[in-house]
Amino acid sequence: MRRRTRPLRLRIVFAVAVPIAIVAAWQIVATARPSLYWPSPLMIVQSFGRTWLDGMIVQDVLPSLGRFVVGYLIAVVVGVVLGLLIGSFRRLRYAAEPVIDIFRAVPPPVIVPVVMLFVGIGDDMKIIVIAIGSVWPVLLNTVEGVRGIDEVQRSTADSYRVSPWRRYVRIALPAATPQILVGARQSLSIALIMMVISEMFAATNGIGFNIVQFQRLFALPEMWGGIVILGVIGVVANVLFTFAERRVAAWHFGMQESR
Predict the structure, then answer these.
(1) What are the C-alpha distances in Å from 75 to residues 20, 79, 113, 199, 241?
(2) pLDDT tens across 107-142, in order?
(3) CA dist., res. 90 & res. 99, Å (int)
(4) Distance (Å, whole) CA 56 – CA 68
(5) pLDDT per residue over 29-86, tens digit each?
(6) Which one is predicted more confidently, 154 or 231?
(7) Cβ contact 40:220 at 8 Å
(8) What DSSP string runs through 145-172?
(9) Phi-psi region of 40 (alpha: psi -120 to 50; beta: other; left: phi over 0)
(10) Burial 187-201 (b: 16+ CB within 10 A, else e)
């Protein structure tokens, strides 16, 4: 128990000490060499309250979070379902691989103008952009997870004539869960990036929209405040994902810790 407690304490200490040291160094350098483009953390904090906390949380941050969550969940569901189907049928996989290789090679920001032509510039466009941009890691990792199922399990399921639905629920999905979680974690950061990019292209609210507006107005402390919010959202999303990951795949992490 003590051996496990020490690494945990060290992780907490480093997780707190390193950001504090970076912010302190930033403040020292910004104070010693003031720059319009590189405001100090103190200036960012002073401008934060009168901009982002003064009504913009409801008007801009919450809508961005809503698009981010909905688009990400759509990507995960679509990626898992298609990945289970493609990974389970060899002929379907052979037919789908060239198409997947083409579309996943396209940089996600490129799809924004295309989606705008068909959907417009509303929330639907932003959600679709987030979903399309972040679906590929989930899809590809799910396919690989299903392909990696033990042949003994497949043969046993064939011998007992297990229905396709039970094969997906009882065999394929649990076996592919570790790979799915890897893809879902990768998609989390992509979804956040696509959220910002979609709001920078065409929007009337949102974090990305306001970051661009502050940059154009040379309100750089306020702009940096928006970047800080994105960083906080990324950290919180990663913590929540880790918490959910430990609950969904507790058996997998238990096997790793027992080795």
Answers:
(1) 35, 6, 19, 18, 15
(2) 888 888 888 888 888 889 999 999 999 999 999 999
(3) 15
(4) 17
(5) 988 888 888 888 999 988 888 888 777 777 888 999 999 999 999 999 999 999 989 9
(6) 231
(7) no
(8) HHHTS-HHHHHHHHHTT--HHHIIIIII
(9) beta
(10) bbebbbbbbbbbbbb
Question: What tokens were used for 239?
Answer: 């913590």
In angstroms, the CA 187 to CA 130 distance is 10
State both tokens at 95: 């037919």
C-alpha distance from residue 173 to each of 69, 85, 152, 158, 188 (Å)? 23, 11, 16, 17, 20
What contacts 31, CB < 8 A, 6 or more positions away? 40
Place of tokens 């306020």: 222
- Rounded to whole angstroms, how far apart are CA atoms 241 and 253? 14
Separation CA 46–CA 64 (nearest Å): 23
CA-to-CA separations, 233 to 5, 68, 142, in angstroms, rounded: 28, 10, 26
Contact 76/181 with Cβ under 8 angstroms?
no
Q: What is the pLDDT of residue 1?
A: 45
Q: What is the pTM of this model?
A: 0.87
- The token pair at 79 is 């990626």
Which residue segments constitute the domains of the chain, with CATH numbers given?
54-258 (1.10.3720.10)
Q: Tell me, what amino acid is at 109?
A: P
Burial of 69 per CB tally in 10 Å (0-12, 13-18, 19+): middle
Q: Tell me, what amino acid is at 36?
A: L
Question: Token digits for 85?
Answer: 């189907």
